[in-house]
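Margin note from the TA: students keep mixing up input and output lines. Inputs are the sequences; the output is the structure of the whole complex. Example:
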Amino acid sequence: MVSFILRRVAGFIPVLFVIVSLSFFIMRLAPGGPFDQDRALPEQVRANIEARYHLDEPLWTQYFRYLGDVTRGDLGPSFRYPDRSVNELLGLGFPVSLLLGSCAMTVALLAGGTAGLLAGVRRNSLVDYLTMSLALGGVSVPNFVLGPILMLVFALGLGWLPVAGWGTWRHLILPSLTLGAFYAAYVARLTRAGMLEVIGQDFIRTARAKGLREAAVVLRHALPSAILPVVTYLGPASAAVLTGSVVIETIFSIPGIGRYFVGGALNRDYTLVLGTVVSYSVLLLTLNLAVDVLYAWLDPRVQIR
Amino acid sequence: MSGRLPHPSEVSPWHDALRRLRRNRLAMAGLALLVLFVTAGFLASWIAPYPYDKTDLRHGAKPPTFQHLLGTDELGRDLLTRTLFGARISFAVGILATLVSLTIGVTYGSLAGYVGGRVDHVMMRIVDILYGLPFMFFVILLMVLLGRNILNLFIALGAVQWLTMARIVRGQILSLRSREFVLSAHAMGASPRRILVRHLLPNALGPIVVYATLTVPAVMLEEAFLSFLGLGVQPPMASWGSLASEGAAAMEVYPWLIIFPGCALTVTLLSLNFLGDGLRDALDPQVTARR
């Protein structure tokens, strides 16, 4: 197991290398730079600034310098926030985005899992129809429509929750619900399908035959196999939650790294954008690895090699 | 069952699937709504009550009235008109980007599956690696840097959506490749290209069609997502995403500006999902039986 994890972590290196190189050259080959402003800078000032950020060197030198810095964990200075390094900016934003993302995933797994479980156990009942209709609605309402509407109803209309911003747990509720809704719906559908598939199998009949209570049959015997598709889905889902949080952070004015990413891309803040992409990728790769380990733990048939 | 034996053409898998699809009311309702929306979007220039960029400041930000069935925005542009034109762009992006992803995915997947062996292994390993990349960020980067026009939009979206399609096609081709009819075509001297195009791909069409139907809503959602961030369709043109974005900015005062485009997008996505689910059930009866 340990060697499996170590080998996978070693496998991150080429992937990260591809990501860094790809983003580096996409950013650099596009027209426009961070210091192209409406008002042209005096020639000398511009040359000084470019020398400070090594922008006057050949592209290849810059590329290898950046690779070297990243290997040492230094993401460089931000071009647009002159007094801050990218590490500092991401250090501020990352915990915020991480908290938002984990809350959204918790919403998705708890709400979606419970709904899917109930619907699967009580197939073709009222509960089943209600949750499945709700789930279909859930996968069809885009989060940038759901967010403003929730805001309109619960913050502006009823005044129960703050409209936007960050700080207390009350600020977390609407963004987490908005971000988690789609995945809750999807998880509900997956859990239900998994439940239906498992519940008719022999080992469930055996469990019932030996007189176990229904709750034990469902929770201890059926559920672990039924949620395997959900576990598989966790990898892509966490990637999508990360992406989605860019929009949610914009809607609810949350100071996470999604806003740095969009702002940085618009301002050609090369280092900030690269830094965001690198940290998102590291997070994503780690989550995918965690999912694989979890999968092997839940399904004894899967061999970790 | 009537006493008459069905004509062979009526029991082909496709006829069978079509019959099952027709019996699925939700899927048919979805299809009807989609046809309606696509037609309305396509005919937008003729049926829209106003030009899409005509401003009328005296009638700005009015709730729905008989002159403006869905109300107007702050510049007095008719929301019904803008929603119709938005439909055109949203559907165009959805369909074109799906075609791009279909082309890349089918070519890549069928090559990997048909050639097999080492090549297949390497090609699929590349797909695995690409799966791990945060793709939407690359799309955002591409849109910011290459300029925000609609051509770039659907190329960027299509270029990142082909991975799952490639996997599906490769799996199909791999399992079909060693079947008797392929071997016999081989024995009769058919070229690899002919085997692939005439024998393998038509048999893999079911899953391809289903997944393509499910790609359209995914792409439309991504277009809306980009437009919402201001990185997609640029004003004065509008897609449903950019309309929702303008609506969200003004929703405290003029809630109808987000409600109508939001509903249009939601209903469309819902219909596409119904249709996709229906097609999957119709083309893959085993899945239905297991449910």
